[in-house]
Design brief:
The protein folds into two domains: 115 residues, NAD(P)-binding Rossmann-like Domain (Rossmann fold), CATH 3.40.50; 310 residues, Rossmann fold (3-Layer(aba) Sandwich). Helices cover 37% and strands 19% of the residues. Helix 5 links the parallel strand 8 and strand 9. Helix 9 packs parallel to helix 10. The longest helix is centred in the middle third of the chain and has 23 residues. The chain is globular and about 80 Å long. It starts with 7 loop residues before the first strand and ends in an 8-residue tail after the last helix. The C terminus is likely disordered.
Length: 501
């Protein structure tokens, strides 16, 4: 019989989550032996939980442990603050633990019902940023119970985390829609494994490979799926890459979203939640422009729905905007990690560059919450806290690996790339934020009516993205596309030129 014992396990946190993990490990008998809990609660220290001793306080006792090379620590305190997690991590590392795992935050643990499969190796994003808001997922997702839920871009960073949390929604079906077969394969397999291990509820999972740009297909697929709720996360997002491929950005993001809205309206989607970005505010990049126009399309669909609602029930269309998320694919955190692991240097565009950050799980929890409490035609902004200087983030990551900036790992400044700027804005000057009844979810109101005729702009852009034999000279003309966008969007007109395909 093959065994998978990795050695002795120390569970940090003797609460319900830690006890649940210990029971699972003992029951399965193949993942090692829990030799002790470590905890700071004086009510628990000195007692035993089903024969396993509770040692503490953590700071005092960790350095006294006689560790073996394969010994491992699992931090099982889902409600802990970032500061406390960082303190525990430093204590464990200084005490000789080489292998440290962590349970996800409380927003991903339903009623403390933790599972071993949810643990993962601790990484820098667990120690960076602020403490995420606690969202009661079971309560927040009640509006999805028994529904058919479609997530576009389900294999991406945001889409895949939405799907993980949606396992707890009690949805009848969860459609995993994406363009890349490998990413959809991975999230489908991951979700099925989570279900097998008792995470969430037994929604039927259906992976779907498709292309938003295919209008006929989107019409057909939404007609057959009969989805009730749609979370639209799919988009090309890499700013410099989209500056070099502007036609692809507009074709996929703008025309793809238009196709999705068309199909959603035709086939009576109940709720349409569109994910957008701070780069849509006074956009200086093609990516930002595409998302800005997508926001307008969704809000235009909401106005149409409101006008027709008296005749027949229509979907609620809403937009949720937020800044960067820590650790997303193609973002700076994975890049910094690879640069540090090869010995540096860590490359930063500018010493004063700042960005707004939150963790992917927190952003997704708030998106799901917004989808339930949001109203038709509303634009919501997630409270991002304070912007973070990228140099500070890089230095924190270097120290996570036990190294020192400059002394051990060089930092180089490489200059702004096409489409980038030193800082981003979360709101237009014409927008004002209003509090809601929900932590870290704000509602934006605009003092200026929408002036752009987006459909007219799309008519100008269409022969660039779709071959029209009568206008074949325009097809894939990136510079023509830029000129059209500059003519309509002032902030982009002043952003400069780059080579385009």
């Amino acid at each position: 019989m093959i065994t998978f014992k990795s050695g002795r396990l120390y569970i940090i946190g003797a609460g319900f989550a830690g006890q649940t993990l210990a029971n699972e490990i003992k029951t399965k008998g193949i993942f090692g032996e829990v030799v002790a809990f470590l905890d700071d609660d004086p009510e628990k220290i000195g007692h035993r939980i089903e024969s396993t001793p509770v040692l503490g306080p953590i700071r005092d006792v960790a350095s006294l442990l006689r560790l073996h090379p394969a010994d491992e620590a699992i931090i099982a305190i889902p409600s802990a603050s970032r500061e406390y997690i960082e303190e525990i991590y430093r204590i464990l590392k200084n005490s000789g633990f080489e292998r440290i795992r962590i349970l996800p935050g409380i927003s991903q643990i339903i009623d403390g019902d933790a599972r071993l499969i949810q643990t993962r190796s601790i990484d820098p994003q667990d120690l960076l940023g602020r403490t995420p808001v606690t969202v009661n997922l079971r309560q927040s997702l009640n509006y999805l119970r028994g529904k058919r839920v479609l997530v576009t871009g389900a294999g991406g960073s945001i889409g895949s985390e939405l799907c993980r949390q949606l396992l707890s929604a009690g949805a009848a079906r969860l459609y995993l829609f994406g363009h890349g077969e490998n990413s959809i394969y991975q999230i489908d397999k991951e979700l099925r494994l989570l279900q097998e291990e008792g995470v969430g509820e037994k929604a039927v999972l259906i992976p779907i490979i498709g292309d938003l740009r295919d209008r006929d297909y989107m019409d057909w697929i939404l007609g057959n799926l009969k989805a009730n709720v749609l979370f639209h996360t799919a988009a090309y997002k890499h700013v410099p890459m989209m500056e070099e491929n502007p036609v692809a950005a507009i074709d996929n993001n703008l025309f793809g979203t238009d196709n999705l809205i068309y199909a959603a309206k035709k086939h009576d989607i109940e709720r349409f939640v569109h994910i957008t970005t701070d780069k849509a505010v006074e956009p200086a990049s093609v990516y930002g422009v595409s998302k800005f126009l997508c926001e307008g399309l969704v809000l235009e669909a909401a106005r149409e729905a409101a006008a027709l609602n008296a005749q027949r029930p229509m979907a609620s269309f809403m937009v949720v905007r937020f800044g960067n998320v820590l650790g997303s694919r193609g973002s700076i955190m994975p890049l910094f990690q690879k640069q540090i692991e090869k010995g540096g240097p860590v490359t930063i565009t500018h010493p004063d560059m700042k960005r707004w950050f939150m963790t992917i799980p927190e952003a997704c929890s708030l998106v799901l919450k917004s989808g339930g409490v949001g109203e038709n035609g509303s634009l919501y902004l997630l409270d991002m806290g304070e912007p973070v200087r990228i140099r500070d983030l890089a230095e924190q990551m270097i120290r996570f690996y036990g190294l020192e900036p400059v002394e051990d790992i060089d930092i180089e400044y490489v200059g702004l790339r096409p489409g980038e700027r030193l800082s981003e804005k979360l709101m237009w000057d014409s927008e004002t934020k209003q509090p809601t009844n929900f932590d870290r979810i704000l509602k934006l109101d605009s003092s200026e009516p929408a002036e752009l005729n987006i459909k007219s702009i799309m008519k100008e852009l269409r022969p660039i993205c779709r071959l029209d034999p009568a206008q074949s000279e325009k097809y894939r003309d990136g510079e023509l596309l830029r000129r059209i966008l500059r003519g309509h969007i002032r902030s982009y007109a002043h952003s400069g030129d780059t080579f385009a395909l």
